[in-house]
Automatic annotation (TrEMBL):
Family assignment from sequence similarity: Belongs to the glycosyl hydrolase 3 family.
Domain Fibronectin type III-like: start-end pairs: 676-745
Keyword tags: Hydrolase
Protein name: Beta-glucosidase
Amino acid sequence: MKTVEQAWHDTALPAEQRVAALMDEMTLEEKAAQLGSFWIRPAEASQDGESNVAPMANTFGAGPDFEDAIKDGLGHITRAFGTIPLAPAEGRERLVELQEQVIAANRLGIPAIAHEECLTGFTTLGATCYPASIAWGATFNPELIGGMARRIGADMRKMGVHQGLSPVLDVARDYRWGRVEETMGEDPHLVGELAVAYVRGLQDSGVHATLKHFAGYAASQAGRNHAPVSMGPRALEDIVFPPFERAVREAGVKSVMNSYADVDGEAPAGSHRLLTEVLRGRWGFKGTVVADYWSVSFLHSMHEVAEDEDAAGRLSLEAGMDVELPETTAFANLAQAVRAGALEQEVLDTAVRRVLAQKLELGLLDPGWNPRKAWLGDDVELDSADNRAHARKMAEESIVLLRNEQILPLENPARVAVIGPSASQPRTHLGCYSFTNHVYSRFAEQQDYGVPMASILEALQQAPALAGSQIEYARGVDFTDLDGSGIAQAVEAARNAEVAVVTVGDLAGLFGRGTSGEGCDVVDLRLPGRQGDLVEAVLATGTPTVLVLVTGRPYSLGQFADRTAAIVQCFMPGVEGGPALASVLTGEVNPSGKLPAQIPDHIGGQPGTYLASKLAWHAEGVTNLDPRPLYPFGYGSSYTSFEISGLELSETGIATDGSLRISATATNTGARSGAEVVQLYLADAVSQVVRPRRWLAGFAKVPLEAGESKRVTFTLHADRTSFTGLSGKRIVEPGTFTALVGSSSEDLAVQADFEITGTVREVAEGRVMDTPVDIA
């Protein structure tokens, strides 16, 4: 390994001086190399010949070999773990060797940043697969999300990974979009709260978080992946931006990744407005912007705003991009562009300074840094008992009880028919970006998941409450196969049972290889394949039926709901999903999850979310399509009962920069302990622009013993009523507002009005975006 004793090695110097000293040593080619990356993609990726784990990956031919690519240095090593199955020790050794090659090859001995996906856990073989992001939203519990992220970060850090490409902060806008499972729901406040917790947790463990996908990606036309986004600046500012802004301002996130989808014709990878004016100028972001995979090249090939790849690279760099991922294609000739006068050197230098500053912060520029000595001990366990316990807790708290006609919990029924494809396939518990579904499923035998998992069927067979029950399983149908020959067997099993547990839902995959996940978009919101026919057939038997949905998106349930005995919504609950679901069904665990996205009534008329204006919500006399959901945002039942009462406001009138306290009492009026999510919504009586009927302004998950009461107090600043006015500026407008407190966006037991007085206030950057809560 090279050792260059220069000023940039002096850890006593300020970071800016160290970076400047290193920049003085570098040639143009060495600088440009810091903005590139390399992905060692296997020639034969899997048994089925499919190699895409990123969009259109197969359309990009092989570039230079690794040795040639690193001769002047390298910015990032792409996915050394999450590309092919490698045992943890083998993967760590592979990364060590790659780093040693990078250090040895470049004159100054600068290491690369190693990045990896980590949305549902460290994306590598043998690591704990936590619930999908949509399940995080269902917990309404930021503390759980922060604890998960700390564990993920610790596992990544000890394996030599520096940067995680998570979390996804896209606010769900159309349930047909395949990546709804990667969102935390349809409300920007919920997403923002959980985003701050995730970023802090991951970065507390020494791994830099990366916000995705900036911005507007989830609002694509017709819910189609990579499709254009037809969204005005008001929706962008008031719905899409807030989670990103909070993660930048409150959590100090270190990296941001752009969106693929153009917004009103503006491609984010080439948008100076988004990457520089908004992100850095307005919000004060100091980290690195990294390209979503091949998105810089897409400026030429897909968006057609650049005449060739070199032009695309220059356009993106000038817009504010710092690092091209996953490979150096459009950034390959930046040094030549500077020499030819086609690119200003300061533009190049600015990006290089940011990348070097990040490497310095990670310790990679310290004297004597050695990848073999950088690990935190020899431990390569990535699926520890502690990880598992946390994954189990998250799964339990994410499960949502939607309907219960006195049939749950199950208590030793004589005969139970367990029916449906989700019951025997543990992969349905995992998101698209779990290693099992993202990579391993294309290499391994069908029953090998790369990490131990129990199916729902196995967990029910082992449940103490069903020890005396005879359990019969019938798969009925597959997730997508249109063969319905197994439905008759399922019907027979249901007829012979005292209760039928029908498990249906999603199997995540990529680019059409699943029913949910990246590139797995749907035309409408009916259950995939013939699963709807299976549910209908079982319901027709008259046997009391518990409908269990294990999904990555909400599906339409209106045609089934009134005929079911119970409905349980389980959003991709992770490796502990089977036991967690069995615990809820049998009453060992009292469900406390709430819907982070509405459950539609019918299959086609409701791609919108609860953040709807009165006009969007109203149907009578306007349209034959009722847009209202079957179950609203924030809804979730329990095996106990709760009451919210005693609303008090500390003030009935505040100034446009004032604040007030909003208090209510949550009481467990049932016979067993449980947890209620107390939710605060606001409504604006009259506004200069059309606004949502109501919006979530605060929430608190409150554990309560039977008969116990707790007082929940929200501190609400006037900024929480702000919006983008007719002028295009953010304002707080005087007027009457209603504070509504309850257990869902439609079940709001108590409400009271307050006034904001004075003149319209233009809100400066750095507004109050959180709502502190006290529980006593």
